[in-house]
Design a protein that fits this description.
The protein has 18 helices and 20 strands. By secondary structure, it is an alpha+beta fold. The longest helix has 27 residues. The strands form six sheets. A seven-stranded mixed sheet has the order 16-17-15-14-18-19-20, sandwiched between helices. A four-stranded mixed sheet has the order 3-2-1-6. Helix 2 packs across helix 4, helix 10 crosses helix 17 and helix 13 packs across helix 15. It binds 6-deoxy-beta-L-fructofuranose. The site of 6-deoxy-beta-L-fructofuranose (LRH) has 13 residues, from helix 10. Keywords: ATP-binding, Disulfide bond, Kinase, Nucleotide-binding, Rhamnose metabolism, Transferase. InterPro entries: ATPase_NBD, Carb_kinase_FGGY, FGGY_C, FGGY_N, Rhamnulokinase.
């Protein structure tokens, strides 16, 4: 038996709706909708426009139902940590974007009540200033939590708009900082300590569970059957990407490479040692109770934001041409630390890179091609370092690196990551996140069975990776 499902995959720069056909020997995806996404600045800060995003999702689902009448379920994934506050089912303003700088205040507030080591022991999360727990501390100070009765993470909000249900999918809830890393249940004691009302946090659901069926008006608008269920997938996009990373043998590390480069290994249990804490490694919840032991590296954001800056006066920069030129110039001698928080906010990225290098007396790239090359080299080194750390901290011998997502199409990045790590890089699939979303739905429907290993076997058989052997520094 094969099943047809719709996968909604929302990224920080674009979203897509895919129709997936899945069965024991079948794994096919077709994109039926693609739309831009990005921050919108209003006087109070940087936001997402989730109403608009939802209307794109509805359009995409309509195209999905036209493409295949037999869509049997819908799964939704997105970037992590961001949320909407609701009262009585009504959304209280557009959600903030995690790059909004108000989070610095949240860090002070939370760490004043619970030092980072205490948090790490409970939630296992690396320090990222935008983790939901810090954002909620700011909401509390602003009085918003006196009004709100619910917090829904972005994919859970989309599921709510489609079905009316209010749930928190576990893999994404694990990025809030408020989930107990060992039980994968909400940490009520921590909420009490931080003055976050427990009522905000809905029931946890796990990937594979049914969230609800379509509201009548959603069925009307999309042309899908009203009985179509929305099924929980790894709703944190990185969790879905890791499901579809073809690690078919031991010794595989992964880099889910899009806006961010999420670099790590899969483990059976969390690693909460002091060394993991100091290396700022995270223990995010994976599908089937696995742990995603990884580190966030800034990722292609640095390149895309650089290009966006160059294009600010209306010029168009051809990415493929730029990368070809970058490959042709010699590898720069000096690289920057792609983990430095200075590269996190939107804005003049080339200026910040030049500033970072210049302040340290390092050579600043003289042309756009050199700048692009310097970015790729810096990312490749940060990836290689994080792979090395992931192996050492988890006591796993890493023998190969899988790069999935948009970064898997960037040959220079793949090759230089292989060169700088001394390990072969297996590139692809590019749509790992949507594939992971489709696979978990397929298994929930009974169209495929088995562990993550057998799902990954199917991925490896269907999408042949491109191999980059290390060639030396
Ligand atoms: C990647 C991602 C990442 C998070 C960040 C906010 O899209 O979900 O795993 O840390 O966005």
């Amino acid at each position: 038996m094969t099943a047809a499902v719709a996968a909604v995959d929302l990224g920080a720069t674009s979203g897509r709706v895919m129709v997936g056909q899945v069965g024991p020997e079948t794994l096919e995806l077709r994109q039926v909708g693609r739309f831009p996404n990005g921050p919108v600045r209003t006087p109070d800060g940087l936001h997402w426009n989730l109403q608009q995003l939802f209307s794109h999702v509805l359009d995409g689902l309509r195209s999905a139902s036209r493409w295949d009448e037999s869509i049997a379920s819908i799964g939704i994934d997105s970037w992590a940590v961001d949320y909407a506050l609701l009262r009585g089912g009504r959304v209280l303003g557009e959600p903030f974007h995690y790059r909004d700088d108000r989070t610095a205040r949240g860090v002070d507030l939370v760490h004043g009540q619970a030092p980072f080591s205490t948090l790490y022991a409970r939630n296992g999360l690396q320090f990222l200033p935008f983790n939901t727990v810090y954002q909620l501390a700011v909401e509390r100070e602003a009085g918003m939590l006196d009004v709100a009765d619910r917090m829904l993470l972005v994919p859970d909000l989309m599921a709510h708009y489609l079905t009316g249900a209010e749930v928190a999918e576990a893999t994404n809830a694990s990025t809030t900082g408020l989930l107990d890393v060992t039980t994968q249940e909400w940490d009520g004691e921590l909420m009490d300590l931080l003055g976050l009302p427990r009522r905000l946090f809905p029931r946890i659901v796990h990937p594979g569970e049914r969230i609800g069926t379509l509201l009548p008006h959603v069925a009307d608008v999309t042309g899908l059957a009203a009985a179509t269920p929305v099924v929980a997938v790894g709703s944190h996009d990185t969790a879905s990407a890791v499901v579809a990373t073809p690690m078919t043998e031991p010794g595989g590390a992964y880099i889910s490479c899009g806006t961010w480069g999420l670099v790590g290994v899969e483990t059976e249990t969390p690693i909460l040692t002091r060394t993991a804490e100091h290396a700022n490694f995270t223990n995010e919840g994976g599908v089937d109770g696995r742990t995603r032991f990884l580190h966030n590296v800034m990722g292609l954001w640095i390149l895309s934001e650089t290009i966006r800056w160059w294009e600010r006066d209306g010029e168009t920069v051809d990415l493929q041409k730029l990368l070809a030129q970058a490959a042709a110039v010699p590898a720069c001698e000096h690289i920057f630390d792609a983990n430095d928080a200075v590269f996190s906010p939107p804005g003049d990225m080339p200026g910040r890179i030049a500033g970072w290098l210049g302040e340290r007396g390092l050579q600043v790239p003289a042309s756009r091609a050199e700048m692009a090359r310097c970015i790729i080299e810096s990312l490749a080194q940060a990836f290689a370092d994080a792979v090395h750390d992931a192996g050492a901290l988890s006591a796993q011998e890493v023998r190969r690196i899988h790069i999935t997502g948009g970064g898997s199409l960037n040959e220079l990045l793949c090759q230089r990551t292989a060169d700088r790590s001394g390990l072969p890089v297996m590139a692809g699939p590019v749509e790992a996140t949507a594939i992971g979303n489709v696979l978990v739905q397929g298994r929930a429907l009974g169209a495929i069975t088995g562990s993550l290993e057998s799902l990954r076997d199917l991925v490896a058989r269907t999408f042949k990776p491109r191999v980059f052997e290390p060639k030396g520094h």
